[in-house]
Write a structure and sequence with these properties.
With about 350 residues, this protein is of the alpha/beta class. The chain has 7 helices and 19 strands. Helix 6 crosses helix 7.
Length: about 350
């Protein structure tokens, strides 16, 4: 456990120093830990109390009648090796499917230009059509083959500098994942296991899903979120509406679920509507939230945009206390790390 004092800035975006030893470099299974045995920091909104738990404690931490909402989007093997015209090899991250053979992509660590064509494995290619609005790193691009098939055959999961080694796509899937559509894993749900889901059901805790296909979330720059496609099915909208009407807690599994539910909330009707749409919603403390009471999430980078969403749910003082506890307690960051449950009364 870390014992030195860690100072968190009191104004502006939440800032703190993330020590290198608190970065999760590989899946918990590679560290000899089952996926549902990662640590769980429970922070209680009513009194700022924090508890050190394991994820397997989740059914005991929640109460009968609670409703858990998760993102069932499966993860694509969205990193492809590409070659420029001069033969230089680069990494190409495939992000968001727009229509047909047109996608949003990110050529990594290069200055690309409109009209540039990259050669892909299997004789395929992709052409950069135009830069993505308000972005210096994303491009709208056209593939000359089916991109899903290319990724399935030649791709690998997107990973960043802090991940050691290459891990199979199964390590980037939740146990309840449906069709693959996300460039990066909706990682807040990774710790769920069949046993935990069964115990939630036995305790009378509801579990429903929606789908939001995440795009790339590269660590360069702190750009605002761009539009992502989502679906809220009728069953989920009805379950959320019934829980809110009864005064029961709605617990979102990940920031993607918060974004989808808040985007599907109809102010006129005062409820979540079943829908299929795109959202570029930015959730901030000034905007607040309408639907979600509690949030299960990973630990986010200093100054990350997701921290504004957490602050909208928890408030700045509570968030500071929870992150101070996580830093002092040696919790692990990133998609293979530990989890944080912000829990309302």
């Amino acid at each position: 456990m870390r014992t030195e004092v860690l100072v968190i800035e009191q104004s502006g975006p939440l800032e703190f120093e993330l020590p290198a030893e608190l970065e999760a470099h590989e899946p918990p299974e590679a560290r000899g830990i089952a996926r549902d045995r990662v640590r769980l920091l429970v922070s209680h909104l009513e009194d700022d109390r924090v508890e050190d738990r394991r994820f397997t404690d989740l059914p005991d931490v929640l109460r009968p009648g609670d409703l858990v909402v998760a993102n069932d989007s499966g993860t694509l093997a969205a990193a492809l090796i590409a070659r420029r015209g001069d033969g230089t090899q680069i990494d190409l991250h495939v992000s968001t499917h727009l229509l047909g053979d047109v996608w949003v992509v990110e050529p990594r660590r290069i200055t690309a230009h409109e009209g540039e064509v990259f050669a892909l494995p299997g004789g395929a290619s992709v052409e950069l059509l135009a830069s993505y609005p308000d972005s210096r790193r994303l491009w709208i691009a056209r593939f000359d083959r089916d991109a899903h098939r290319l990724m399935a055959r030649y791709g690998r999961p997107i990973s960043y500098r802090y991940v050691r080694g290459h891990w199979p796509i199964e390590m980037y899937q939740t146990v309840y994942a449906g069709a693959a559509g996300s460039a990066e894993m909706p990682s807040a749900g990774r710790a769920f296991s069949p046993d935990v889901l069964e115990r939630l059901a036995h305790r009378g805790i509801g579990f429903v899903t929606l789908t939001l296909n995440t795009g790339v979330a590269s660590l360069e720059g702190h750009e605002k979120p761009y539009a992502e496609e989502f679906w809220v099915p009728e069953l989920t909208a009805s379950a959320v509406g019934a829980a809110r009407a009864d005064g029961r807690r709605v617990i979102a599994v990940g920031t993607t679920v918060v974004r989808a539910l808040e985007s599907a909330f109809d102010l006129g009707y005062g409820e979540v509507i079943a829908c299929h749409a795109w959202t570029d919603l930015v959730i901030s403390p000034e905007r607040g939230v309408q639907v979600v009471d509690s949030l299960l999430t990973g630990f986010h980078e200093p100054k990350a945009s997701h921290l504004a969403m957490l602050e909208a749910i928890a408030g700045r003082v509570h968030l500071e206390k929870a992150y101070q506890a996580a830093l002092l307690g040696g919790y692990l960051w990133h998609e293979f790390g530990d989890l944080h449950l912000i829990l309302s009364a």
